[in-house]
Amino acid sequence: MDILSLIGIIIPTLSLSIILVYVLKSQQQKVEPTVQVTPPKPVVTNSNENAKFFLPHRVEAYQRIILFMERISPNSLVMRKFEHGMKAKELQGELLSTIRSEFEHNIAQQIFISPQGWKMVKESKEEIIKIINLASSQIDENGNALDLSQKIFEIATQIEKLPTEITNEFLINELQRLF
Predict the structure, then answer these.
(1) If exposure means fewest CB atoms within 10 Å of the residue's CB, which of 43, 70, 96, 150 is most exposed?
(2) Residue 23 CA to chain centroid, in angstroms?
(3) Is the pTM value of this prediction over 0.85?
(4) Which parts of 26-121 are beta strand (E)?
């Protein structure tokens, strides 16, 4: 191919490209948005209306979290999940799984509970998990669920006040201050 034929191809292609860019830019400038976005206006309500709306939700959240604390207390948890013939490791796994599942089920309640109250809930959950794991570490590796249950009860009785009880007391006092 000689240079003249190459130039004959390049010049029209380049010209067409320039024209196309020009046409597209002019079309882009002519297009105006058809929808105008306006920022949402803040909802202004008085504090009495807020209280009427949020108070029932807060009360329900405290109820649910207090129930959660009761459900994960060692005695309640073991009594609900213990089955004859289970191995200790099976019971341990079931107890830990139940705690985590119930915590995840109630996690949205933190919206309505004070930051200090929610921190105590999380810490109580972790302390109960530690009790279960400690009890598991203190029994024979091939122990059964009854051995683990007894060890959990033994550790729980050695604690003056369980973390779940402390948290419940705090939450109940906090809830009573709302009224």
Answers:
(1) 43
(2) 53
(3) no
(4) none
- pLDDT (tens digit, 9 = 90+) per residue, 30-72? 545 555 556 666 555 566 777 677 888 999 999 999 999 999 9
153 contacts 78 by C-beta, under 8 angstroms: yes
Taking the CA atoms of 105, 67, 164 and 179 in sequence, report the sign of the dihedral they define.
positive
- What pLDDT was estimated at residue 46? 60
Question: For residue 170, which phi and psi values (nearest 5 degrees)?
Answer: -60, -50
What is residue 108's DSSP assignment? G
User: In which residue are the tokens 């948005």 written?
Assistant: 33
CB 174 within 8 A of CB 120: no
Structure tokens at 6: 């190459």
How many CA atoms lie less than 13 Å away from 137 in the CB half-sphere? 7
Instruction: Identify the residue with better confidence: 35 or 111.
Output: 111
178 vs 51 pLDDT, higher one: 178
Q: How far is CA 150 from CA 80, 103, 116, 155, in A?
A: 14, 24, 33, 9
Calculate the average pLDDT of the chain: 86
